[in-house]
Amino acid sequence: MLKxxxxxxxxxxxxxxxxxxxxxxxxxxxxKSYDVLYTSEPSKGLIGSFIREKYLYGENRLSPFxxxxxxxxxxxxxxxxxxxxxxxxxxxxxxxxxxYSSLAYQGAGEVDLQWIQNINKSILYPDLAIYLDxxxxxxxxxxxxxRSIMENLETQKKVRNLYLRFVRxxxxxxxxxxxxxxxxxxxxxxxxxxxLKGFSR
Length: 201
Ligand SMILES: Nc1ncnc2c1ncn2[C@@H]1O[C@H](COP(=O)(O)OP(=O)(O)O)[C@@H](O)[C@H]1O
Ligand SMILES: [Mg+2]
Hints:
CATH class: Alpha Beta
Oligomer: single chain
Bound molecules: adenosine-5'-diphosphate, magnesium ion
Structural class: alpha/beta
Order of helices and strands: EHEHHEHHEHHEH
Radius of gyration: 16 Å
């Protein structure tokens, strides 16, 4: 259905795991040899802006079902307007959070994973999905006051368990994020390079 020729990579993990730091470092490396697009979820589109500006740091939490629908709607728009056009131009797209965030966070809110996958049916799945793993206690220390309404220790533990489940089923590749920024960046780049070598064959 969806034709593309670029490569689509997503970086997943808890808030504070270092996704934005690492995605940007990865982009710097990749830019030396490839045409690359950095993007993130929630996206800059209409629904993504609503989620970021009005919801994530607000007072009230919607039901995880409604959250899943909002994130899916944002993702569908994001794929159509940003990700797919860049892939069609042959770019490497690196996305900071993607479908596995929906599965892990709303899954942690007891939403059925199959249903989350169903409402995300029309999206594009990443060619390579990486999970930056860190203990929730350590991550909350990193974050201090910059927490969204979705972050508390119990939730974080559930979210991590779901991410680890996707690692076991080989949907996500784990990179240990509990190291210095430079060490994590090196480990991450090794995984990406290995993938790119296999991809070009
Ligand atoms: N490997 C690391 N060690 C220590 N602190 C880090 C590391 N990676 C990121 N940080 C810091 O942790 C905070 C969250 O990092 P960030 O990249 O924004 O995470 P995320 O995008 O996953 O929420 C930032 O203050 C960042 O500087
Ligand atoms: Mg971030």
